[in-house]
Structure formats: structure tokens, C-alpha cells
Automatic annotation (TrEMBL):
Stated family: Belongs to the ABC transporter superfamily.
Localisation: Cell membrane
Name listed for the protein in its UniProt record: ABC transporter ATP-binding protein
UniProt KW keywords: ATP-binding, Cell membrane, Membrane, Nucleotide-binding, Translocase, Transport
Principal location: membrane
Source organism: Levilactobacillus tujiorum
MF-aspect GO terms: ATP binding
Listed SMART domains: AAA (SM00382)
Signal sequence interval, chain numbering: none
Domain of life of the source: Bacteria
Length: 289
């Protein structure tokens, strides 16, 4: 059996000076090359979970952490900072937080992580050129990072992490500041990372788009406990109607069709546009779905 790339066992965490756990009962595994989507209402602990996986909790935020996070079979706390920053890239929910504040151009900002890792300038320049052209950032390459719009900052933050080329990417609401074109660009990059066998964790509210890319889905309850984890088509077949969870449009349509066409409950439900189109085509032919 292969070792999972990321494995969380009985994780529970509370921030300092708080009286109850922020997240608890988290148990899941992710293999190399998989994309995990994380959903939950505001304040359910999605960002906290990202910090736990990348080893920033409890080293940076302190507080009380129980359970174990293994990356490639080794406790995340046993990696040194340099190893960890080459292994896991984190794109902050608020792109303003990610801007270093010490660089005067977007170019330098994108290369800053590599510079910190002590890479030679020829390699830094090559990588920076690559990601600038990948994200079409040429028009802003010599701008001051602080002079950028929220959406541009978000793309620069993504570029800076792509430049490092870690094994694991954690995107915390990477498209919150982006227009539809920018959003599509980010998802195209996620598709590309998947092709490169990178492992991606993405926190995202744009469910329909996310469903096109994720292999596994983690749903957090409001209180930070794990509601569900597994393949989206399977776990969304078992969502309790009382659960306050937004569903993908395809799943909602399927649920609306169910009573009308007397469709039995299924082990799997449609989650993408393609899924629901296939279901409807089968219905039109009079077959089982
Ligand atoms: N440094 C901190 N100290 C104490 N409590 C915190 C801290 N950071 C976050 N929290 C609390 O922990 C809970 C989970 O926060 P978190 O930011 O992880 O949620 P989230 O699901 O990412 O929310 P959002 O959708 O708004 O990004 C919230 O109640 C939040 O107020
Ligand atoms: Mg968050």
C-alpha cells in the first residue's frame, strides 16, 4: 500500500485564549496527485485547517493541537522550515497578507520565495519569466506590488508560489478577488497542476467550478467538526436535507427531478454540468439513471 501524501488523524485544535475547539474530529487522507476541495460556512475552520496542514499551527499560532498530521509519512513538525516551504505552497485567503512588503516590483516579489531558498539568480529569473507568461502578468511586471488591485495581488501571490514549484499547493479562496476571466485562469492552472501530478487543496465557494476539478471533498460543519469526506459524487448523495450546505447546481437539479421522474436514491449523484446532462440524456431515452 502506498503511503498517503497527506494524512490527518484525530485532529483537534483550539486557538490560544479560546474556550472550545475551533476544529475537531478531522480524519482524512489524500494521495499524491489528488485535488481536495474544502467547503464549510464562514468561520467553520477552513483557513485554520490549511494552517494545520502546513505546520503553521501550533508553531506560529500556538494554541492546543491534538492528533497528527503526516506529510509523506512524517510528522509535519519534523520538517525544517526550508523543506516545508519547498514541499507546501500556501496561497493566502487575503492576498494583501502574502505581499512581502520588501520588494518594489512584481517581478522581484514573485522571485522572493526562491531568493529566500537561496536559489541562483539565473534560476530565479527563468522561473519568474515562466510564471509571468503563464499568468499573463507582463503588463504589471514592473509595478509596485502595493499599487495592484485585489485581483492582481491574488494572481501575483499565486505566481510567487508557482515559482517555488512545491509538491503540495494549498489555495485558500484563491478567486475571491477575481473576475470570471481571472477565476477561469486560476482553475486552468489547477487543472495543469493536476496533470503534473501535484497535490492540491482548494478552499472555494464556487462549487460548480470546483466540482470540475476535485477528486475528494471535505465538508466542515459550522462548529469545525468533519461532516463528510470522500468522492463528491458519493458523499453528496447522502447530504441530510437539514444540513446547511450549498449543493452544486447539478446536484440540485437532480434532486428536483427525483420526485417528478420517480428516481430512486442513488449511490452517486451528478455534481458537474456534464454529469447532469448525461443523466437527462438517459432519462430522455427512457433508461435508468
Ligand atoms: N488567531 C485566532 N485566534 C482565535 N480565534 C481565531 C483565530 N483565527 C480564527 N479564529 C476563529 O476560528 C474560527 C475558524 O476560523 P477560520 O478563519 O479558520 O474559518 P474559515 O472557515 O476559514 O472562515 P471564512 O470562510 O470566513 O474564511 C472562527 O470562529 C474564527 O473567528
Ligand atoms: Mg478562511
Amino acid at each position: 500500500m502506498t503511503t498517503p501524501l497527506i494524512q490527518l488523524t484525530d485532529i483537534a485544535y483550539r486557538y490560544p485564549l479560546t474556550s472550545k475547539n475551533t476544529v475537531s474530529g478531522l480524519n482524512f487522507k489524500l494521495n499524491r496527485g489528488q485535488v481536495l476541495g474544502v467547503v464549510g460556512v464562514n468561520g467553520s475552520g477552513k483557513t485554520t485547517l490549511c494552517h494545520i496542514i502546513r505546520g503553521f499551527i501550533p508553531s506560529f499560532f500556538q494554541g492546543t493541537l491534538h492528533g497528527e498530521v503526516l506529510i509523506n509519512g512524517q510528522s509535519v513538525n519534523q520538517y525544517d522550515d526550508t523543506e516545508l516551504s519547498q514541499l507546501i505552497g500556501y496561497i493566502f485567503q487575503n492576498p494583501f497578507t502574502q505581499i512581502s512588503g520588501v520588494k518594489e516590483t512584481v517581478r522581484e516579489e514573485i522571485g522572493y520565495g526562491l531568493e529566500n531558498l537561496g536559489k541562483p539568480s539565473s534560476e530565479i529569473n527563468r522561473r519568474v519569466d515562466e510564471v509571468i507568461s503563464l499568468l499573463n502578468l507582463q503588463p504589471i511586471e514592473y509595478k509596485n506590488p502595493f499599487a495592484l488591485s485585489g485581483g492582481q495581488k491574488q494572481l501575483v501571490a499565486i505566481a510567487a508560489i508557482l515559482a517555488i514549484d512545491p509538491d503540495i499547493f494549498i489555495f485558500d479562496e484563491p478567486t475571491s478577488q477575481l473576475d470570471p476571466a481571472g477565476t477561469n485562469k486560476v482553475f486552468a492552472i489547477i487543472a495543469q497542476l493536476k496533470e503534473q501530478n501535484k497535490t492540491v487543496i482548494i478552499v472555494e465557494h464556487k462549487l460548480d467550478l470546483m466540482m470540475e476539478y476535485v477528486d475528494q471533498l471535505l465538508v466542515l460543519n459550522r462548529d469545525g467538526t468533519q461532516a463528510m469526506f470522500g468522492q463528491p459524487r458519493r458523499i453528496l448523495a447522502h447530504v441530510d436535507p437539514d444540513m446547511e450546505m450549498a449543493l452544486p447546481t447539478a446536484t440540485q437539479i437532480f434532486r428536483q427531478l427525483q420526485p417528478k421522474y420517480q428516481l430512486a436514491n442513488q449511490e452517486t449523484v451528478p455534481v458537474t454540468e456534464r454529469d447532469i446532462v448525461t443523466t437527462i440524456q438517459k432519462l430522455k431515452r427512457g433508461g435508468d439513471v
